[in-house]
Amino acid sequence: MFTEFISSDGLIRDAAKTIAKMQVTDAERPIGIQIYGHIPDALVEAAVRAEAAGPDLIDINFGCPVTKIARRGAGSGMMREPDKMVEITRRVVESVKLPVTVKTRLGWDENSKIIVELAERLQDAGISALTIHGRTRAQLYKGAADWTLIGEVKRNPRMHIPIIGNGDITTPEGAKEAFDRYGVDGIMIGRASFGHPWIFKEVKHYLATGELLPPMTVRERVALAHRHLDKSLAIKGEKVGILEMRRHLSCYFKGLENFRETRLKLVTETDPAAVHALLDHIAEVWG
């Protein structure tokens, strides 16, 4: 698991919201604190502070494509400055005792897919594992992820660190294909877990047995949504807990007929009790 990515600038300024993102629990282990930024000194200091919070590893995010981050040269914006990326990585590795990993993309755009050479350089800088998202920064999350270059990195005889593939893994079958076809050491699932947090259980079961778990019933999904909401409220507080659950609750019940009005209520209601009541209503009507 990884924390939300944390701004190195915010962390060294002691921004309360940023520091709160570093809180980890034993139930989450092994967990990495993920940092991002574009100023070398700030990233080094942020890594040292992150290490003091007690994670199992430090992860540098060179993959986020969001414009407000990339245009500052952070996240996947660093793909335009590979020398700087490698130097930052080397300095972070040297500044902490924990393993350091990197997440990045294929390149900045279609004409600059530099990941095969870049992977070697990042490995030489001392990282312990590399996660590659199969899109360029220019693609954002559009189009299909291209795993071809991820496989090429993995097959490179110079590479000896674990390679983790990321992008468009939404089913157990897709996860197995990533391992079988591209030879990766691991896979990362992000957006596909929204409203479907049991995907990890499904994938592990399929990889172990070759069999698909039966689909969760509506009532099972409702029970899980109740639990998810309670945990979000306990950890984030009522206001943020409700807001952050909306993107999950909007996806929990995909495929239900005549559900539009109820979904709208789920993603606009601000009272936790009312959201719980809506969930009970879903179980009664569609369960």
Description:
It is built from 13 helices and seven strands. It is an alpha/beta fold. The protein has two domains: 6-168, TIM Barrel, CATH 3.20.20.70; 218-286, Non-ribosomal Peptide Synthetase Peptidyl Carrier Protein, Chain A, CATH 1.10.1200. A seven-stranded parallel sheet has the order 1-2-3-4-5-6-7. α3 (40-52) runs parallel beside α5 (82-95) and α10 (218-236) packs antiparallel against α13. The longest helix has 19 residues, at 218-236.
Please describe the topology of this protein.
Layout: E1 6-7, H1 8-12, H2 16-20, E2 32-36, H3 40-52, E3 57-62, H4 67-70, H5 82-95, E4 100-105, H6 115-124, E5 129-133, H7 148-155, E6 163-166, H8 172-182, E7 186-188, H9 199-209, H10 218-236, H11 238-252, H12 260-266, H13 272-286
Which features characterize this protein?
alpha/beta; TIM Barrel; Non-ribosomal Peptide Synthetase Peptidyl Carrier Protein, Chain A; 7-stranded parallel beta sheet; 7 strands
Shape: globular
Helix content: 40-55%
Radius of gyration: 20 Å
The CATH topology of the largest domain corresponds to TIM Barrel
Please tell me the overall pLDDT: 95
Gap from first CA to last CA: 32 Å
Short description:
By secondary structure, the protein is α/β, with parallel strands linked by helices.
